[in-house]
Amino acid sequence: MARVTINMIAEKAGVSRGTVDRVLNNRSYVKADVKERVLKIAKQMGYVSQREIHLREREQEYKPLRLGVLLPSFGFGPQFHEGVGAGIREAQDELENANVEIRVKMCRTDLPEEAAGLLKEFLQEEIEGLSVCLPQDPSIEKALREMKEANIPIVTFNSDLPDSGRVLFVGQDIIQSGRLAAQIMYNCLRPGEQVLAAVGDMKFDGHLRRYQGFSGRMAELGFPPQDIFTAETFNDYSTTLRVIGEALRSHPDLGGIYMANLSVTACAEAVRTCGREGKVHVICHDINDGIRRLLKEGRVDFTIPQDFVRQGREPLIWLVSYLRKKELPDAERFNDLQILCAENIGPDRTDRQ
Fold first, then answer.
1. 131: helix, coil or strand?
2. What residues contact 341, with CB distance under 8 A and at least 6 apart?
3. Can you list the alpha helix ranges (DSSP code H) found in the chain?
4. Using N-to-C axis directions, what is the helix angle for 32-45 and 6-13, rounded to 10°?
5. Are residues 134 and 101 in the same domain?
6. CB 19 within 8 A of CB 41
7. The predicted structure's pLDDT at residue 78
8. CA–CA dist 309, 307 (Å, integer)
């Protein structure tokens, strides 16, 4: 609906623009009946003066906001929590003088009921926006939809919840990152070699979509689907070491391991223990000191990093922008993909974690 102007009021009231201006600014030299008629018409038409608009904008800009952040358990890995935690602190520093309170909760388990309970706590605490990274589960998505119905905007990060009613996802194009890993892996393999795709937990949208992107691209390239083996490791070092060790011993033609999860050091150790170093290509995601060392040692071939700090910071900054100005970024701005190997990680840390 178009904003009501002085000219529109003047036309409806049958007076000049100057008369309307004098009435609205409470100036003299206007007859009482004309003043009453102009004010009545202005009210009926929903006129708002520039001064009122400015005051409302300033009031909205500095209105106190309470935001919530819900993080997954420590099973998601220290690298994730350190980076995201740093991003949250960056946002807190940036919003320190903007009248914004940020409350952070973290799941102690991977049980959906716990996450749903923490979401209900946030509702009781009357938060006005939520940043969240959680697994896909009906009880979690139901709790998030209840928040949406309460007019609480939700931003997901790292692992998306497409059915949650969220207004924005901050993270990589997860399917595309899996497809990129597949293209690299395919180019590394020799004819007849097989691949193990190790996934943390298929309940997390990020892990599932990475695998879907990887397997989909491998199929497009003509790689036999029966030569891709899949295993869940739940981001646990011991489980990863055992599962990958068993796969290496059971499949002598295994020529590649795709780590769509954490515990890359456990994967490298399993390859070493089985005497397969230099014979099995390892492609993973993310970057930390351990992965950087493995790249330099030639025990990991390539990694596709992501910026956990940004994933902690951006949802909070954009929630404030959305709540105060109804502004959101183009989701494409978060979809940058990089490939790192021993030749381009550099002598110093290149990531922000």
1. strand
2. 295, 301, 302, 303
3. 6-13, 17-24, 32-45, 50-61, 78-94, 112-124, 138-149, 174-188, 205-220, 237-250, 264-273, 289-297, 308-325
4. 120
5. yes
6. no
7. 84
8. 5
Total domain count, the chain = 3
Same domain, 208 and 243: yes
- Contact, 250 vs 196, CB < 8 A? no
* Residue 24, domain extent: 6-47
Give a yes or no: residue 352 inside a domain.
Answer: no
Asked if 77 and 204 count as a contact pair (C-beta separation under 8 A), the reply is: no
In a domain, 85, yes or no: yes
The SS3 call for residue 146 is helix
User: CATH code at 198?
Assistant: 3.40.50.2300
Q: What is the pLDDT of residues 155-193, one digit of tens each?
A: 999 989 988 899 999 999 999 999 999 999 999 999 999
Residue 19: which CATH number?
A: 1.10.260.40
What residues are paired with 156 via a beta bridge?
132, 169
| Domain identity same for 154 and 193 | no
Angle, CA of 222, 180 and 260, to the nearest 5°: 100
Are residues 213 and 129 both part of a single domain? Answer: no
In one-letter notation, the amino acid at residue 307 is D
The pLDDT tens digits of the residues spanning 227-274 come to 999 999 988 999 999 999 999 999 999 999 999 988 999 999 999 999
- Which single residue is written with the structure tokens 């790292």? 158
Contact of 10 with 17, CB cutoff 8 Å: yes
**Cα dihedral across residues 283, 287, 288, 293: positive or negative:** positive
58 in a domain, yes or no?
A: no
Does 233 share its domain with 277? yes
Shared-domain flag, residues 72 and 149: yes
Alpha carbons 58 and 35: distance in angstroms, whole number: 29
